[in-house]
Amino acid sequence: MTEYYYSQNPSASHHEQEWTFDLLGNRFYFTTDNGVFSKNTVDFGSRTLLAAINQLDLTNVKKILDVGCGYGPLGLALAKKFPENQVDLIDINQRALELAKKNAALNQLTNVKIWFSDVYQQISDSDYDLIISNPPIRAGKKVVKKIITEAREHLNPNGKLIIVIQKKQGAPSAKKQLEAVYGRTQVLLRQKGYYVLLATR
User: Which CATH class is domain 18-200?
Assistant: First the structure.
C-alpha cells in the first residue's frame, strides 16, 4: 500500500533531521522525519498562507486551530507571533504529532495544545476565532470538503476560516464550496498558483 503523509501511522523508516527556518519574523528550530509532509523545508503553500495572515488585523483573535498541522510550522509560527493566544494543532498522522510536540518544546512554546483528530472528530470546542489549514490534497476531495464545511460548527460568530490551495489542485472549486457555506469569500493572496482563501462565519 502506498503511504502518504496523511496516513495515521506511517511505517516509513525513521530518518530524523533538524534545520532552522524563519517564519513571521522569528527563527524556528524544526525536527522532521520520513512519513510527514514537506520534511526538508516549510512548503511554499504554508509560507504563502502565513504571508496572507500577516496582512490581517488579528486584534480580536484569541483562539486558533490548525487543521492538518503536520510537524507544526503554521500553528507554531502563530503561537510565537501571538504569545497571548491559545493555538490548537491537530492531525491524523501520529508521527507528525510527535514531531509537532517536539518542535513546540524546541521553540519553547507553551501556548499550544497538540492532539490527534481525524479532521474535526476529536474537536469539541466551538469558539475558535480563526481556523487555518493547508489541507492534505492527496487525501482526496472529500477530506478537503470536510475541512471547509465542518469548520463552521467550530467557529465563533464572525470567526474566520483561512485555507491555502493550488489552482490546479482545486482552488476554484474550494472557493465555490466556501461561498456555499459562508457566503462571500475573499482571495487574500495569490502567488505562483497558490490561492489563500478567507471565509467568515
Answer: alpha beta
